[in-house]
Design a protein that fits this description.
By secondary structure, the chain is an alpha+beta fold. Strands 8, 9, 10, 11, 12, 13, 14, 15, 16 and 17 form a 10-stranded antiparallel sheet that branches. The chain has a 4-stranded parallel sheet with strand order 3-2-1-4, sandwiched between helices. The chain has helices at 10-21, 53-62, 73-82, 94-100, 103-110, 146-156, 209-225, 257-265, 269-274, 348-361, and strands at residues 2-6, 25-30, 43-46, 65-68, 127-131, 141-143, 161-165, 170-179, 182-193, 199-204, 231-239, 244-250, 286-294, 301-302, 311-317, 325-331, 337-345. The longest helix is centred in the middle third of the chain and has 17 residues, at 209-225. It folds into 4 domains: 2-92, Rossmann fold, CATH 3.40.50; 118-165, no CATH class; 170-274, ATP-grasp fold, B domain (D-amino Acid Aminotransferase, Chain A, domain 1, 2-Layer Sandwich), CATH 3.30.470.20; 286-361, no CATH class.
Amino acid sequence: MKLLIVGGGLQGLEVCYLARKSSHKSILIDRIPDPIALGLADEFHKFDIRKDKKRTKRLIEESDFVIPTTENIKTLKSLEKASEGNEKKILFDFNTFFQTSDKGKMYSILSDSVRIPSSRSRSSPPWIAKPVFGSGSEGIVKLDSEEDLKRFEEKTHEKDYIIQKFLEGMKYSTEAIAMGGELYIYETTTLDFDENFQCCRVICDPVPKDALNAQEISVKSIYDNFDNLEYLFDVQTIYNGEEMFLFEINARFPSQTPMAVYWSSDVNLLDQLLNPGNFELSDTGCVVLEHFVKKPHDNPKLCSEISLLKGKKFEINSDLEHGVEAIIGKAREGKGKIGTVIFAEKDLNMIRKERKSFYKNF
């Protein structure tokens, strides 16, 4: 099957990876010459779809399905227009994405159905300030006091930011697919973040039942609150042991978690997007997916997922002595390496041993 993938960043890397696992042909479009997904794509077209609509239409017509893997609003609107007459090929809910990409609008829609962290005006420090637009943790700032808030306001005037109560707890992510009036919910993963609130690790290990039930309720509530929600979306939450709070919704193909789910449950979310249902979340043990950077004359260090954008020439390495697979690239600046490694074992203790050996011998 020929899949047209629009955007070669983190999400594009994810889809190209999963396409390889299912022997689909990946046809990648990006405006830059060396996006990080380049080495995993079967075919690459360098151009800006906003400027070459004729070429975009032709590639859409030649493909079986189109998967947008960009969050650029102008690019998505251009793609939506170019797909007129071929709407059934586009596996993307433009309307819901445009609604949920604005966190203020998203929280307003969901405020009566899911728990949302209290706003700054209704809580005391610490707070978390996050950009209104864009997914992921980029741009997030923790404000520990009124003084921090004052400095932040002077610097940003709170423009394009939402400030909420900072919550401690476990961070979870769950993918779901809505199609044909049915909702399919997949494995819930645990997310680890670094000191800058950037996700650096995904863990697939049994989630406590109370958290799993609360997560499922959140996913179903979100599905019920968006009219005509379709295709793949993910829900990220924070669980404090008693209540589940919504962090964000991404109404598009996510990154990093589908790879972890693939190795943990043997479910390929790209295949599910093409034909949902008929899956079993088999328990294959524990899986850890994490990102790392290795500078010359230095030990490998954990890094955020977004740091992968500082790399190039990524390739899949399945011939590992420790770990099941890695996607490794070269640093765009300097001589270091950067990548993602996946460990799969019976339990976390065994993974810790594998992880130690992998980095020692890298």
